[in-house]
Amino acid sequence: MLPVLLAAAFAAAAAVSFATVMVLAPPLTTQHLPKERLGD
């Protein structure tokens, strides 16, 4: 039973860390603002 609990705990920790990275990571694509929105 202990290996099953350890595997479940590892999977839960991996899921939480993956979700945290996906939330905190910057987006891969950036959209540049047009000149009229920059105030120039």
Structural description of this entry:
By secondary structure, the protein is mainly alpha-helical. It has a domain at 1-26. It contains two helices and no strands. 0% of the residues are buried. The model has no long low-confidence stretch (mean pLDDT 85).
Secondary structure elements and pairings:
Elements: H1 2-24, H2 35-38
Pick out the low-confidence regions.
none
The major sheet is characterized as: none
| N-to-C span | 66 Å
- Number of E-type strands: 0
Task: Determine the fraction of residues in helical runs and give it as a percent range.
Answer: 55-70%
Radius of gyration: 20 Å
Share in β-strands: under 5%
The helix/strand class is mainly alpha
Average predicted local confidence, pLDDT? 85
- What order do the helices and strands follow? HH
Number of discrete helical segments: 2
Q: Which shape, going by the Cα principal axes?
A: rod-shaped
Q: Characterize the quaternary organization of these chains.
A: single chain
In brief:
Helix content is 68%, strand content 0%. It has 40 residues and is mainly α. The chain has a domain at 1-26.
Tags for this model:
40 residues; mainly alpha; 0% strand; single chain
